[in-house]
Design brief:
- The chain is mainly alpha-helical and 460 residues long.
- It has one domain.
- Helices cover 69% and strands 1% of the residues.
Length: 460
């Protein structure tokens, strides 16, 4: 059923001619509807594939071209397209990216990583500390930056200590994904869900905290059990180590020295104090305008960080993930056009008629798990948003946030954080292979998602 739902939503095999909303283009011709379905399908297929043959296009470029095509075929007007952009989500995301960039420039992430690597002679403690620290940081800051900063340090320290880095790298990727589900600001899709569903920051964290802690414990257990032999000390010189299952470690291909940025304690303290104040404000603010206030506060905090005589603002801008912001922009327009013409409503009705009820928790979990691994979590959430808005069940939003985030642990290509770990480790000659990752990722995802579903059904 989940695969059938994904196929319907992505391929556009839904009868055309649904009732359209009244507006500047309310008399849209059926041929325009057909063109819109084609644009929608091509956009999401391209996002699923990551590009098209012979075209140097990434997912962001495909989403932007999809948005442009919707405007060109007059599927949506510029005014209507602008109305469907969730500015609160984009501004909140931008503000928090500035916080993360400032901490990265100040050397905060490397500082945390260096603290952890002192435990290389105690595998159990290192694994537990790594999972805990990466999860906590990912709950409030970008998990991809956490992975980008920690991976080189882990590879360097573990290879020098003659240990296999792969189990720890897998734990880093999975725990950062798990931890980011703990708060509304933990990842982009949570920010969007919090804004459109009007979720309170404190209540969200209170509901998610127990199941996130349980999932982190399961994460530690899975790595210890499934990688128990690889956690032991390896024999031989670290410049020529061959790990199990074809993961070749050749650190001699790159100098083992990692040159961290200079640590600026003033900037670190300033950033953490402002971030702490921001979180307190998020806990206090409630009501219909909470999303707008969160975005405004994040921008104010980012503005305070930009007022610095130590870190150049231009350097912070370079570390902002503009690709993600533009991906959001393009998908807002593509999905908004489909909603504006009533095509999304027609698709959802067809799915309901065929027994795919997205207002049922188990069905929503299955569809979200499949879609998040086909097109990534942000596009999946944007795609499923109309169904949850129509269902008007607050608990489903919590479920969507949890499953779309943890679905990224299923395979190596399930999330950007996973890919960052694999690519950064490859520079040290450490190959995190798909099969090796899935040894932990698949069972961990299935068990944690099932646990999360049971927990939310119990408390919500």
């Amino acid at each position: 059923m989940a695969i059938k739902a994904a196929a319907f939503l992505m391929a556009g095999r839904i009868p055309l001619g649904g009732r359209c909303r009244q507006g500047p283009l309310a008399d849209t011709h059926p041929k325009v509807h057909a063109a819109m379905w084609a644009i929608f399908a091509v956009t999401y297929v391209g996002i699923a594939l990551g590009g098209f043959p012979r075209l140097v296009l990434d997912r962001t470029g495909i989403a932007l071209l999809g948005a442009i095509a919707m405007l060109v075929v007059r599927g949506v007007s510029i005014r209507e397209a602008a109305a469907h952009i969730d500015y609160e989500t984009m501004l909140l995301l931008f503000g928090l990216m500035i916080f993360s960039a400032q901490l990265r420039v100040a050397g905060f992430y490397v500082w945390c990583g260096n603290f952890l690597t002192r435990l290389t002679d105690r595998p159990g403690r290192l694994l537990a500390g790594l999972i805990a620290v990466s999860a906590v940081l990912s709950a409030f800051l970008a998990n991809d930056i956490v992975c980008l900063a920690f991976t080189p340090l882990l590879c360097h320290a573990l290879l020098a200590a003659r240990r296999d880095p792969v189990p720890y790298l897998v734990a880093l990727a999975t725990s950062s994904n798990i931890g980011s589900a703990a708060t509304i600001i933990g990842n982009p899709q949570n920010m969007y869900i919090g804004a459109v569903a009007g979720l309170a920051f404190g209540h969200f964290a209170l509901v998610m905290a127990p199941v996130v802690l349980a999932a982190l414990a399961l994460n530690w257990l899975a790595v210890v059990v499934l990688f128990r032999q690889r956690l032991n000390r390896l024999d031989g010189h670290p410049s020529a180590i061959t790990a199990h299952e074809g993961d070749t470690l050749v650190p001699s291909s790159l100098p083992l020295q990692v040159h961290p940025p200079d640590r600026d304690m003033y900037l670190i303290v300033k950033s953490l104090v402002l971030l702490g104040a921001l979180v307190v404000f998020f806990l206090i603010v409630r009501g219909p305008a909470a999303a707008e206030w969160r975005a405004t506060a994040a921008l104010a905090g980012a503005g305070a960080l930009l007022c610095s005589h130590r870190a150049k603002a231009a350097k912070l801008y370079q570390l902002v993930d503009w690709n993600l912001l533009l991906l959001f922009l393009g998908l807002f327009v593509v999905n908004g056009a489909m909603q504006e013409r009533g095509l999304t409503a027609a698709a959802l009705q067809t799915l309901t008629d065929r027994g795919v009820r997205l207002d049922q928790p188990v069905m929503l979990t299955a569809v979200t798990l499949v879609l998040s691994n086909l097109v990534s979590n942000v596009p999946a959430v944007l795609l499923l948003k109309p169904a949850l808005a129509a269902a008007d069940q607050r608990s489903l939003w919590y479920l969507l946030a949890l499953v779309s985030t943890w679905a990224g642990n299923l395979t190596l290509v399930g999330s950007i954080a996973n890919l960052i770990v694999a690519e950064s480790a490859a520079a040290f000659g450490v190959q995190v292979r798909l099969r090796t990752y899935c040894l932990v990722g698949v069972p961990l995802t299935l068990v944690t998602v099932a646990t999360g579903l049971a927990w939310l059904l119990l408390v919500m």
